[in-house]
Design brief:
Layout (H helix, E strand, L loop, with lengths): L1 H8 L19 H17 L4 H8 L7 H5 L2 H4 L7 H15 L7 H6 L5 H48 L1 H4 L28 H6 L13 H9 L27 H12 L14 H15 L4 E3 L10 H4 L2 E7 L20 E5 L1 H4 L6 H42 L1 H4 L17 H7 L14 E4 L4 E4 L4
Parallel strand pairs: 1-2
Antiparallel strand pairs: 2-3, 4-5
Helix pairs in contact: 1-13, 2-6, 2-8, 2-16, 8-16, 11-12, 13-16
Protein name: Variant surface glycoprotein 1125.4683
Length: about 450
């Protein structure tokens, strides 16, 4: 039960988001998303239309949100919540320009605003990427909200499992996932207003939230404290409540003090418990409780087949002396392990025979189911954050490769003009005497064999 106490009371840690630069990052998904959107907005501003730039730079004409909303041509490009958002956008645009007094990190990395021709070229693609990124960011924020709500719901079940329904009805800050589950006030500890151990532990009752079976804290006291004034060493040595005689009526405050003394003996664990593994560990711890039922029976006399038979004993948790008498779940000083029907244990028959389930175990199982949902949401959140980062990277790339999309304008080389030669000039350059038609007939004959002219005899 120490194991269950620790699992139920520790904070539920959301692991570092893998999209972060550090695996131990404490940034929430919302913080990461807002950072991505902030950078993406500046990149998108670098290709903004001139009418948008006019609103961002003309502070005299567009003093506030009302002035922007009053200009029909400009209003459609702005969905301002208030004046503060307008000022935030102006501050961001100054960073894009690297203006005096503005942060220079962005302008140093991406350069000053692009020329209008480049803006026009990039604007459709950039607008599409920014809208896709905004949609992904909204999904990330929604997933994180659902994740935190799921953890809060699990935490309520964990509070009910450990300290009962009365504790879980307290303010929700007690059930915060960022810190250990707070101890209940003495008045809210699950114990009857005035009852000895025998009365509080003997007959589990699902309708009485102060009786055994409803809260793990009650059952820890029932298992570790005897119906006696001394010898409360069933779970660990040295457990000595200030009001030690639990054979007499004890208050919720007395039981709460005894509980704190008991759990202080629980050994600290070294394993790291996070959202990703706590559900499985809770389930395993519950199975360990079921596995230990009927494992600590001590035969003091011939067991009665009815009250102490095998079917009955499988519902016993703790140390019990088996005999002919029905178990009384009372542990007195000298007879804890000897008197038949006595024991430091709980009989869960009232919950297990009708298959209603032990209430605090039911709450643990409900918490585990919520935490499994939380793990799935966390996985989906990580996936969408990775998508948002990829979309931001695409937006960053566009301005950088802009020069490839709009090559620099260069002076065209001077065209060299050529004069077309006349027919006479062409004839001067033509090769002569290579065909019969070119052979002068007055003084020459054409030698068809040698394919050339030759002089006529006597010339």
């Amino acid at each position: 039960m120490c194991r269950l106490y620790k699992l139920l009371s520790i904070p539920i840690t959301i692991p570092g988001l893998t999209i972060s630069l550090r695996s131990d990052s404490t940034e929430s998904a919302n913080q990461i998303t807002l950072g991505i959107l902030d950078r993406a907005q500046k990149i998108n501003m670098s290709v903004a239309k001139q009418l948008i730039v006019e609103v961002l730079t003309n502070t005299d004409k567009y003093k506030n949100k009302a002035a922007v909303d009053g200009d029909a041509a400009k209003k459609g490009y702005f969905n301002l919540k208030d004046d503060a958002e307008l000022e935030k956008m102006r501050s961001a645009y100054k960073e894009v320009l690297g203006a005096q007094g503005a942060e220079k990190a962005f302008s140093k990395k991406y350069g000053r605003a692009l020329e209008e021709k480049q803006r026009q070229l990039l604007r459709p693609a950039m607008s599409n990427l920014y809208q896709n990124l905004a949609n992904t960011a909204a999904l990330c924020q929604d997933l994180e909200a659902k994740l935190r709500q799921t953890i809060a719901t699990a935490r309520v079940h964990m509070g009910k499992a450990l300290y009962g329904t009365k504790y879980a009805a307290t303010p929700t800050d007690l059930l915060s996932s960022t810190g250990p589950l707070s101890n209940p006030t003495a008045a809210n500890f699950p114990w009857p207003t005035s009852a000895d151990r025998k009365t509080a532990c003997a007959k589990p009752d699902g309708d009485d939230s102060t009786k055994a079976g409803n809260a793990l804290a009650t059952d820890v006291v029932c298992i570790c404290i005897r119906n006696h004034s001394t010898g409360h060493d069933m779970c660990a040595a040295g457990i000595s409540p200030a009001e030690a005689n639990f054979a007499a009526s004890r208050s919720p405050a007395n039981a709460e003090e005894a509980f704190e003394k008991i759990v202080a003996k629980c050994k600290p664990g070294s394993e790291k418990i996070t959202l990703l593994n706590i559900a499985n560990k809770l389930t395993a711890a519950v199975q360990a409780v079921y596995a230990r039922m009927d494992k600590n029976g001590i035969t003091a006399a011939a067991a009665n087949g009815g009250p102490n038979g095998a079917a009955k004993r499988f519902n016993f948790y703790g140390i019990t002396a088996l005999g002919g008498a029905a178990p009384g779940r009372v542990a007195t000083g000298a007879t804890t392990h000897a008197t038949a029907g006595e024991g430091v244990c709980i009989d869960y028959s009232a919950y297990l025979k009708p298959t209603k389930g032990i209430p605090w175990i039911n709450n643990i199982e409900a918490a585990a189911a919520e935490l499994k949902k939380g793990k799935e949401l966390f996985t989906e959140l990580n996936r969408e954050l990775a998508k948002a980062v990829a979309q931001e990277r695409q937006m960053k790339t566009l301005p950088i490769v802009c020069t490839l999309l709009t090559p620099a304008v260069t002076t065209a080389p001077t065209e060299t003009k050529y004069k077309k030669p006349t027919v006479e000039e062409q004839n001067k350059c033509k090769l002569k005497n290579t065909i019969a038609e070119e052979c002068p007939s007055k003084h020459c004959n054409y030698d068809d064999t040698k394919k050339q002219c030759k002089a006529k005899p006597g010339t």
